[in-house]
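Review box. Two proteins, two foldings.
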Amino acid sequence: MPAPPEGSRALQLNPKAKPSATKMKQVIGQVLVDKLDNASYQSDRAAALTKEIADAVKMQLKECNFPRFKYVVQVVIGEQRGEGVRMGCRCFWDAETDCYASETYSN
């Protein structure tokens, strides 16, 4: 890419580096332990708890100060009854600049 003309400003559209997926997993895992350790499933509380967890994860990730990133946090809470669960999701992103981290917690 050619250098911008002298005296002009160049905008940096893309971040210099991706956030660390390892660091994101640590943050997510710690929030899950903090919020769910010794918790039991309550269907009437599940919606509020998913929002609480998502907000906590988002806040903790923002505190990591990864520059120029937005976060999409999805939390799913379900009851364990010995039944299987299949889930799928789809995202469109730029593999050069975007990344993801996922974590599973069970008690």
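Next protein.
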Amino acid sequence: MYNICLRMTGTVENAEDALQNAFVDVFTKMDTFRFESSVGAWIKRIVVNTCINLLKKRRMSFDELNEGLHNALVETAENTLDSELLNVEMIQKVIFQLPEGYRVVFSLYALEGYDHEEIGEILGIGETTSKSQYSRAKAKLRDILQSPRRIVRV
């Protein structure tokens, strides 16, 4: 859960705040759990919603990634890069260049495994908007990764 918070908020401090707030919500709302999904899935949804609310409130962006993001981008870039040029640090810098909406949708879909319908519900956008933002994020990532000036100082 901490890694989700860190990827979405971008800083250790914000991730810790979001995680703490999420678990306060979990414990105060435990009586509202309806057993329609696993407890883990319910907690994950609360964590993601808490991070999104924090992003909306502070208008923050995220750039912390894990190996899952590396794999997602390798799949996205498919044969468009020299493999030695693709590393986690570079990917972090590339992801940071995406607009916030693209980053959030990309993270929720590619890293967290939400489908576009769920992303739409979480973010208050339509399913087609989620799909188009994900598609645009992938296209922008490809463009950035193929550009000779792809590495931008963050």
